[in-house]
Specification:
Blueprint lengths: L25 H13 L8 E5 L7 H4 L3 E4 L5 H11 L4 E7 H7 L1 H10 L3 E7 L34 H8 L3 E6 L3 H13 L3 E7 L3 H7 L5 H11 E3 L16 E8 L5 H13 L10
Parallel strand pairs: 1-2, 1-3, 3-4, 4-6, 5-6, 7-8
Antiparallel strand pairs: 5-8
Helix pairs in contact: 1-7, 4-5
This protein binds iron/sulfur cluster.
Amino acid sequence: MKPTNPTSQYLRMDRIPHIWCPGCGLGTTVNCFVRAIEGCDIPLDQISVVSGIGCTGRVAGYLKLDSFHTTHGRPIPFATGLKLANPKLKVVVYSGDGDLFAIGGNHFIHAARRNMDMTIICVNNFTYGMTGGQVTPTTPIDAIASTTPFGNIEDPFNLPYLADCAGSVYVARWTTFHVRQLIKSMKEAIQKKGFSFIEIISPCPTLYGRRNRLGDGLEMMQFYKANSTIQNGADTRDAVLDFKGKILCGKFVDRERPTFLDLYNTKMAERLGSSFKPYEGV
Ligand code: SF4
């Protein structure tokens, strides 16, 4: 009997083989995501995945869910519309560091501030892979990119701290080496009410690793293994990534805040009285 891959039921197999390079961490993240939704006990027709543009943006096209591959930097506004039109949906934004924090940075902070009920999964490979390896807002200082051939001079974002300060109710960081922890975290984030955020440090051996002499995908994973430390509950200010110290991983934030729709319904009921009917979607 021909063996079947247990994840294939969650993938659009007609689109496989995928376009990702050998050693890229993206496939590992998708595998973890599939395992997470399998363990969430949420009907698949109630989960929707939205991606932007880039290598990570391809995820939406490979998942056999209601998924949307949107324009560059705009998956969060698109996901906001989806959530407001159908508040029962579990909406997951799955995109890269350039898409979410350069072009889409503004959308990220405002969706977190509003506590839009959605999960953001950011695969952070420190570069724009699909377009040739340009510098992004997470590229470490001194790192070589196609647009910084003499080394990056800008301080990168500390993504967990940014998410925490902007109001995320759940913030975690893992590398692609930490598959068990990542699956657990994805499950928690998807089931958490409010704006949840997971950063996944992931190898791009082709454009980031090669330019910075970090070795192939396996060597980059070995580096993550040797240089990560897990501290659940750590202060997100300590999650700076400079690759001189340890990569701080863990679940950093898990708190409660009313979501945008909770506040809308509560405040409008107070202001409009009995004439107000709670919003339940279109
Ligand atoms: Fe992965 Fe980098 Fe290749 Fe894109 S360019 S598929 S991020 S290894």
